[in-house]
Amino acid sequence: MAFAGVSGTIGEAGPLALLHGGAWAIPDTALPDHREGLAEAMATAQSAFSDAAPAIDAATRIVAALEGHGAFDAGCGAMLNRAGEIELDAGLMDGRTGRYGGVMAVQQLAHPIRVARDLLQHGNGQAALLAGEGAEAFAERHGHPLVANETLICERERQRYAQHRAEAAVDSSDSFLPNNAPSDTVGALVRDAEGRLAAATSTGGTPFKWPGRVGDSPLPGAGYYATEDVAACATGWGEAIAGHSLCVRAVDAVSAGDAPQVVVERLLTSMHERYTHPRGEGARAGLLVLPASGPGAWAFITPRMAWGVATTTRTAMAIRRETPLDLRHPS
Ligand code: ASP
User: Fold this and answer.
1) Catalytic residue check, 313
2) Is residue 329 part of a domain?
């Protein structure tokens, strides 16, 4: 099967952040919010570059900005599970050390990516992934305040939940059908001035998901991965992304010498063929890849993907397939 999405290469040498706010049929009405959220994240990337933040800290800051914006399915914009609660997953990886941290199914953290960052640092070989209350206890021990679940619920998602409850049969995997409900996970890849790489991702998961459901986003190799040479992050149907080990395969293929754009197209296509939704549709996702030198690549086989790129001096973003990159040069 030929690649049935859109893709490209982007970026130049030097510090670069590639970030996304989900891949799905983002409606026109949601474009302003998504653009604003991406713009904030790109500004955060540039301030991390000016602070000479290491890639892993820059990625944490970018994803924390996306978690805090509210437009996306992460942090305070997350979608509710069937029990009417927020359950968040996040993870990140430092390319140079291979260390990673991930938290999953957490209910009381406004910025799970920051806790994942601390776990990477302080897990000391005892834990790199923590779930639920264990993750929250770790967070408290490391100075992250716990918040009431209720305070993470925004009005938009409260309404979506009410609508799902009113519908006779809602299947959370339906959000990955071509024109369906949101999948607004966020993620970032960063290459810093020293050529270090990091990958990070954060999500509220799928709308109306089963309580306890965990997707690809907190799992290294699935929703994110980074080595000294290449970093990758993904968004889309988590069950398929994890099964296909999408990000580690992307990183390995680029490390082996394949062109980043060829790799993202090939892997999204093979995942689409291998994993089929119960309603017969192939799995869909978006994928970003960033090598330690040279341009990065992006691709999606969903109707739209909200994504952006920041260098020290320039930013660009795109959402619609038909929109050319809107390059903006800060004055
Ligand atoms: N990959 C996420 C998950 O399955 C959803 C998304 O990317 O929007 O939890």
Assistant:
1) no
2) no
- Residue 20, in any domain of the structure: yes
Q: Provide the annotated binding site for substrate.
A: 213-216, 235-238
Pocket of ligand 1 (CB under 6 A): 22, 73, 183-185, 203, 205-206, 215-217, 223, 235-236, 238, 241
Residue 167 belongs to what domain range?
6-318
Rounded distance from Cα 7 to ligand 1 centre (Å): 20
Among 19, 206, 246, which is best to mutate for testing ligand 1, by the most ligand atoms less than 8 A from CB?
A: 206
- How confident is the model over 246-286, as pLDDT tens digits? 999 999 999 999 999 999 999 999 999 999 988 888 999 99
Look at residues 26, 66, 309, 301 and name the one whose alpha carbon lies nearest to residue 202.
66
Tell me the CATH number at 247.
Answer: 3.60.20.30
Specify the length of the chain in residues. Answer: 331
pLDDT band at 166; cut points 50, 70, 90: confident
Residue 105 is predicted with a pLDDT of 98
Of ligand 1's atoms, which has the minimum distance to the CA of residue 205? Answer: 9
**Ligand 1 atom index nearest CA of 213:** 9
Tell me the per-residue pLDDT of 42-89, one tens digit each, with 9 for 90 and over: 999 999 999 999 999 999 999 999 999 999 999 999 999 999 999 999
Predicted local distance difference test score (pLDDT) of residue 183: 79
The total number of structural domains in the chain stands at 1
